[in-house]
Records
---
Amino acid sequence: MKIKQYKTARRLGARIFSKTQSPKFVLARSRAIGKKRPSALSEYGLQLLEKQKARYSYNLNERQFSKYAKMAISKKGVNPAEFLYKNLESRLDNIVYRLGLAKTRPYARQMVSHGHIMVNGRRVTIPSMSLRSGDAVSIRPGSKNKRMFESMAERLKDHAVPSWLTLDRDKIHGVVSGAPSLQEMSDGIFSLASVVEFYSR
């Protein structure tokens, strides 16, 4: 899986997986660019590239991702890129990742699917569940002693969360305190405006 992710990240030219966040990947990427001049992409090719970066970043298959994109495009009176970002960020698995309870989105999805996460005091197993302001996220009491959650409070001490989330690092309890805003997008790996253009064709 690590080799497959490495190859995908190299093809897309972006560090979209946790395994490709290392200096080794950056060095290998710069060497590859130095050896071979990248060919110019068409407008369609550039949009496709941005779509793939976003889809892999959020760990979604094409059917899932296109559903979010087409929903954003069909919504009247909104900025489709903003609406798309809000819906992607509001997924439970993404919020578990943003809170620092999981190191990666795939791991966050696994946590949710296996029933380790609670929303408003109830066990949830649906990673795609959309949360709203006021919803609370926590670890199921019966799961707190599992190895994956060992030293969690210590690991969260230096973890920074988005402004629309609130994290109690001692109780390991998070709350959705606002709404995701595209202006706060910190990854900078892909362009959701290009994604919208791709699906608007």
---
Amino acid sequence: MITIRRRLERRFERLRGNDRGLAIVEMAIVAPLLALLVAGIMEYGLLWRDNLTVTSATRASARVASNLGDSYLSDYEAILSLDAALASVNGITIEGVLIYHADAADGSPHPSCFDGNGDPQSANNECNFFTAADLVTIAATDCSTSCTEFPNNSNCFGGMSVNFCPQQDRETDQTTGVTDVGVWVRVSREYTTGIFPGDGVTITDYTVMAVEPSS
């Protein structure tokens, strides 16, 4: 009886050993898939958060442009607001900003504000496009008193805002009908986890607000 019992115990021990080996194999198969799933959820969650941040920053920038109306510093302050709101977000780079006359029914920029490839551009009386290089220049410029980049003259002559001029093209008289001003932004956002192909995604967003009436 003792011999039979020992044989049974040894057989059960071997079976338990086989179960442990099978569990290790199963874990080796499942673990990478589980890690990929968790990384994907985290990446999409961070992307969703950053997309909301871009939306919030664009809205704040449009609010600044709306409040300043026909001030020659309207574009300057709107861009500083946008840059400050996105500066703390890792992996986001502003590729370009359009500040435009939002006269379309859906509030989108006028077709002339984009070239044949769909890239933004400045267009007379419609929009001002600021490149990534322009944004660096603006961030380093102090226009608190005056500056050549945003000159204080009604024709916006000699500065960056030469197409959709704040002092000339933005109506602030509510009896005439105030201008709707829009801020459109395109940013590149790097992937955080690196599990997806490519360097990242492009996020575009725009917000429209009516210029605050002065009379």
---
Amino acid sequence: MGLFDIFKKKTHAEKISIKFRKLRDKSIINESKSMMHAMILSSPHDNSFLDENPSGEGLFGLVKSNPIPVYGIDNIPAYIDKLRYKYTSKSGTDTFNHLDYQRTIDQDTSEIGSQKPTSDPVASSVSSPNINGHIDVYNLFSIGGEKKAKIYINSYSLKTSNKIPEGFIHRDETPPERDSKALMELMKQMK
């Protein structure tokens, strides 16, 4: 970018992209210092500061032996906010939708595609011999309440992962003008 590019007029498409980037930025759930910080330090925990636990085994986030590192339970919403799934409408337009989540148990055998329960199911933590700290289990649901996956999260970590489980897309890798949360922010502003 040269000095005179600053004065160059933006195209309509560039202006739209900038607007949607601002809308998406406004809707992002940001990570904060965990209220669990002292408890994490005083308990067995993952202090690797890596996106994936070096002791993890198996598919990242999809098995309890390789859970997603998250810096405290209170930062789980910030992590899940990074996840998107691709939705293609009947007209062929792609959007990248955010997910809803619900805590569950390891023995949850509800099928992918099943509907989200109307009440919170029983939930409990699990453990894996290769992972320090408790592991929580969550079901992820589409905007329409359809189950997309069951994931495992270890919130006894000093870093929240930026890695995404297989089958999902990182929010930052999607076009802002096709991000469902940015589109929802735009609709709010139009009211």
